[in-house]
Design brief:
The protein has about 260 residues and is an all-alpha fold. Among the domains are: about 40-120, Orthogonal Bundle (Cytochrome Bc1 Complex, Chain D, domain 2); about 140-230, Cytochrome Bc1 Complex, Chain D, domain 2 (Orthogonal Bundle), CATH 1.10.760. The chain is about 40% helix and about 0% strand. Strand 1 (about 200-205) and strand 2 form a beta hairpin. It is globular and about 90 Å long. The relative contact order is 0.11.
């Protein structure tokens, strides 16, 4: 039986179309560029978006370390997703969600949170229960000043301006970059990477001599210390700025 003449061109066209998949120079699927929204590797997402502030291995960065089991035990997924998505107002923590002007999808933000937990995890909390990471308890700056001297003064100086062990925590530039929640988190969880003990006076599970004999901090006490630190915050930190009511060239005034 002879093949109809009209089928020959169709066969040739089909072969040409199929041949496009193996023509020399065409990139394979593995060689084709990956769209930013298709990246789901935790290492890639964390390195590109988080490591600059939180440290390459989750610590020794300018911001709170993620490689902190106590912090990860207290911070639930909803809280971490919220601050990652929307950022933190008046700090250097930007919004990463596309819906808030960032570059990450909801799935990618979940990938980061899940990867942080897999990599650095949390642990069961034993001993004295820690204060809640988030609290509506109103602090008293006067009580906070006394508590700071007792619990923190050995390292930061009685007035918070710096001591032999640690630097100032009442510096206006520092306070302008640290949110209220960041201060509270530091008091509760400490800074493992910088040698700062947690609410119970322990560092890596071991008591520190500066807090020897002191009871663990509670919710009210953490709120009081945080309130005292915030009382040092300036509305316009940094150098004096000229008043908007003065003519150009006049003497500057401190707000």
């Amino acid at each position: 039986m002879m093949t109809p003449r009209w089928t020959i061109p169709m066969i040739a066209i089909s072969m040409l179309i199929a041949g496009c998949d193996w023509m020399p120079g065409k990139p394979t699927k593995a060689e084709q560029p990956v769209l930013p929204t298709d990246v789901h590797s935790f290492n890639t997402l964390y390195t590109n978006n988080c490591s600059g502030c939180h440290g390459a291995n989750g610590h020794f960065g300018a911001a709170r370390p993620m490689n902190d089991p106590l912090y990860l035990s207290l911070a639930d997924d909803a809280y971490l997703i919220d601050i990652t998505s929307a950022g933190v107002t008046h700090t250097l923590m930007p919004a990463f969600a596309k819906s808030d002007g960032g570059g990450l999808t909801s799935a990618q933000i979940h990938d980061i949170i899940n990867g942080v937990r897999r990599s650095w995890g949390g642990h069961p909390i034993t001993g004295d229960p820690p204060p809640p990471l988030q609290s509506s308890t109103k602090g008293d700056p006067k009580r906070g000043q006394s508590l700071f001297g007792t619990y923190c003064g050995a390292c930061h100086g009685a007035d918070g301006s710096g001591g032999e062990v640690a630097g100032s925590v009442v510096d206006s530039s520092f306070l302008s970059l640290a949110s209220e929640q960041a201060l509270r988190s530091a008091i509760i969880c400490g800074r493992l990477d910088l040698g700062m003990p947690d609410y119970s006076g322990r560092l890596n599970g071991e008591p520190v001599k500066q807090r020897e004999g002191l009871a663990p901090l509670g919710d009210q006490q953490v709120s009081d210390i945080t309130s005292w630190l915030l009382s040092h915050r300036l509305e316009y930190p940094g150098a004096p700025y000229p008043s908007l009511n003065q003519p150009s060239g006049s003497e500057t005034q401190t707000p």
